[in-house]
Amino acid sequence: MICTHPHGDTVNGHWLCGKCYAKLSERPKTYKTVRTPIASLRQEDSPPPARYRQDVFPAPISTDENGMTLSAFIEAMAKRLIALTRGGFTKPDAIDYAIDLLRGFEEPFGNPELDWSHAGAWEMVNEDVQYWDHDGAGSNA
Ligand SMILES: [Zn+2]
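# zinc ion complex -> structure
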């Protein structure tokens, strides 16, 4: 799968798409050719010659409407996971797990229908952990 979504954030050394949560090895860029006319070289009855330059625009960082970034949100989820499991997760594992959880919601980061605050990150983890208890105890709910 090739992700070409326009925003994301650096998480644990990888670029993470803020829309489909694909992991990319580097931050996507877009290139735009900028034309600058050189007015001083203008001759009558012809358009001025121009220089062309390629500007590079790195993909912007994903944030929600309150300025929470994707990486800070995942960090909050990961810390909650580590705390709830009393260190049962290493940091990279907790981050990967948090990313998987986010993918499960199938909502782009910053979608106003979900809570992207610190509390929202904890809530997502808390809800998931409830299911672990059922699995662990083998209960048939
Ligand atoms: Zn994407």
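# post-check
The pocket of zinc ion is lined by residues 3, 5, 17, 19-20, 22 (CB under 6 Å).
The CA atoms of residues 57 and 86 lie 42 Å apart.
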